[in-house]
Amino acid sequence: MSQAFGEGAYPATAAIPTGWRARVDPGGRLRRVRESGIAIVQIVVAAAGAYAFSLSVLGHPVPLLAATVTVSSLGLVRDARPRRVLETVLGMLLGILVSELLLLVTGSGWWQLAVALGLTLVFARFISPQASFAIAAAIQSLIVMIIPMTTGMPFTRLIDGIVGGVFALLVTALIPRSLRAVELRDARAVFRDTGSAAAALGQALRRGDRLRAERGLEKARALQPRVDAWRESLESGLAIARISPFLRRQRGELNRHARVLGGMDFATRNLRVVARRVVYLCDDGVARPVAADVLGEITRGAELIGRSLDDISLQPVARETLLAVAAHLDPRELLPGASLGDQNLIAAMRPLAVDLLVATGMPQADARAAVPRI
């Protein structure tokens, strides 16, 4: 297995506590700043623009909410989809509206603040499952209730909030957060950890080592958060690319990555099935080199898929590699006379190969037809 995909390709940092890593790795801090650069520019431009518009064009003397709504709705989170920004803006406008209505009807005071805050949190939790969404809406509600109006016109601050929301959506499209680097990093993490899990399982099969097999199973079970992180950054990138004229060229590449992600999601699930069978079989301490070789060839195909994210010319190479091993995934052909458990292990690798073939862009029906009928 090549080092680019195996356990030795990346430094082992899992055993170091996060706080200590931050202290000994100043490069991580610089990377955070670099990756947040566009988000910081978005927030600064949107907040300043919304404030200036409300102040100079609308004549509002203190357009505080025009600025705070942009900051709260854009944020520095990974999920920068326009839909999420819009949902957050609507939640905050709801908080502002509730407080403005209560001020008109009941005036200000401690119990009015409590009522406004309670209603805002109830409505926000009803609208969105995100706790941060409700808190952001509640903060806007509190600002309206606590800071006195500087003009006699009602709903001035609601207008400021709308201005802030409009500017937040504008900068999302005109100064887009290109999440390509984040998406590729998340994708590489999936392939890196998949290779690490498969390598541990392959070594367990070669040595009949149950402890190593259990380690491989642990690594396989830890893959789902990696896949979920990749999905989040990929979906955010696709959503931004759909509305931004500046990221239109990335749409095709991101859609291709989405197809790879779909296949890898199922492949990692099937790898966990394979891992459980390996743990069971290694209990007898018997080496199984044939099964280890088959898993190694499948893993090599997965490695090529991961490298094809950067170099599309490797996609057909990955497909041919997987087709070559898939054509021989007949348990009776590979392990004639072997126990049912050993043959079942080979049978469990068949869906894994099919899912990886789908990740290369092959239609599902063709991928299933690539493995022999049993």
Topology summary:
Layout: H1 18-24, H2 26-35, H3 37-57, H4 64-74, H5 82-106, H6 110-127, H7 131-146, H8 156-174, H9 180-207, H10 210-221, H11 223-243, H12 251-281, H13 289-308, H14 315-326, H15 331-334, H16 340-359, H17 364-369
Helix pairs in contact: 3-4, 3-8, 4-5, 4-8, 5-6, 5-7, 5-8, 6-7, 9-10, 9-11, 9-12, 9-13, 10-12, 11-12, 12-16, 13-14, 13-16, 14-16
Protein described:
By secondary structure, the chain is mainly alpha-helical. The chain has two domains: 36-174; 180-369, Methane Monooxygenase Hydroxylase, Chain G, domain 1. It contains 17 helices and no strands. The protein has helices at residues 18-24, 26-35, 37-57, 64-74, 82-106, 110-127, 131-146, 156-174, 180-207, 210-221, 223-243, 251-281, 289-308, 315-326, 331-334, 340-359, 364-369. Helix 9 runs antiparallel to helix 10 (210-221). The protein is elongated and about 90 Å long. The relative contact order is 0.10. Mean pLDDT is 85; it is low at 1-16.
